[in-house]
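note to self: dont lose this again. the chain is below, predicted strucutre after it. 104 aa total, dont forget to put it in the shared folder this time
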Amino acid sequence: MEHEFQAAMNILAGPPPTAPSRYNQSSIPIVLISGKQLQVQIRISHAGMYEKLDPSSPRYDPTFPKPIRISGRSIRFIQSEVNDWILARIQASRNIDKSEGNAK
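---
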């Protein structure tokens, strides 16, 4: 009976914690979003998203989050990288506003 109880408790406890991977150094789960979800989140067209990713495009943004290829035709983006990019864009726009304000 004691053995059955311990086995049930082990099942309820779940798998043992794993060491953080080299890409996920915290206990926060990595959230992947689709290209369409990214487009909705930052209000950009499908073509606009790929222009930001294409180094030969005049609209190329080297800071834009890089996609992860899931399969032959499927890509995903890491939500935290998208969030970081958005925050960097906000910070850059605030710095531009401040520098323009000081120049006047």
